[in-house]
Amino acid sequence: MKKEVVIIGGGPAGLAAAIEAAKCGAQVLLIDENKRPGGQLFKQIHKFFGSKAHNAGIRGIDIGRQLLKETEECGVEVWLDSAVIGLFADKKVAVLRNGTTVTVEAEKILICTGGAENPLRFPGWTLPGVMGAGAAQTMINVNRVLPGKRVLMVGSGNVGVIVAYQLLQAGANVVGIVEGMPKIGAYGVHAAKLRRAGVPFFLGHTIAEAKGTEKVEKAVIAKFENGQIVKGTELETEVDVICIAVGLRPLSELAQMAGVQHDFIPELGGWMPLHDGDMETNVPGIYVAGDTAGVEEANTAMDEGRLAGVSIAHTLGYLKDEETVQKKNEIKDRLNALRQGPFGERRLNAKQRVIEKGEAV
């Protein structure tokens, strides 16, 4: 089976890329292992903020619905409940679909498999009730299931504080936010909501132990200095859920399988694929975008997807040079704007290093 463009992953980056390439005339197949595309957007019930160009005032779930509508209008072919189990440098994709393996040969491939939550190991971390913040967010916002009534959140980045607030909205009692650093990692606008709701922040603390027999019953936290727990500072509280929000890492196994060169970039999640300014890797015809290309946030993922979609359409002959340059410049300006300020500058510098290394390969 032959397809012109295959996009692996139907999250923000994959959907945006599919729309951009299909609008230019490319024939696009979008593959996602879930029963519904949209990825993280359908967990995000909060409103985005920033500029109009970055969907300010619009909830993530509504952005997802709009992207799905556009993929239908553009004629993107979508395979759901289909898992890509193999990807090769000759641009062949092995897909487990309807119980059988199908091999698809593509001219261009875009990998948008997203990111995975980092684990945190401590005594009792395998007890039922210890889960990633993303898992809790899926339960409350997608499956409408409350994971527990008393929740401790470990990690004060945007994911931790946003999910903690959504747990409050769903009816849980968030007993605290534990953060190993001396300051909150999230945007102030998110953290302020929790403080107004009376949720305490334990800065310079970490989770020391989860206690329980068949499930989590208590959490022990303690002060954290120089990478060590300070003995004698332990605090114990009753909980039935401990959520872990200590960062994401790029899911790049398929890129590795295809021979894409990787490097360790801590600011973007760790081990990740290198790519050039057009999102193309060292393997010609294989592109990456979104959290696979370095963990950032949804608007960045969508614009990286659009950049990859434009680049693919151009190399296939669907866009003229002048129009391509204009579209790319518009997208890159938005990406640079997203990476400004105290939170974005490190990512901007890291992304520039990725591109420089990718172009040098």
From TrEMBL:
It holds the Pfam family Pyr_redox_2. It comes from the Bacteria. InterPro entries: FAD/NAD-bd_sf, FAD/NAD-binding_dom, Metab_Enz_Cyan_OpOx_G3PDH. The keyword Kinase does not apply. Keywords: Oxidoreductase. The keyword Oxidoreductase applies. Residues 4-305 form the FAD/NAD(P)-binding domain. PANTHER family: ANAEROBIC GLYCEROL-3-PHOSPHATE DEHYDROGENASE SUBUNIT B (PTHR42949:SF3). This is NAD(P)/FAD-dependent oxidoreductase.
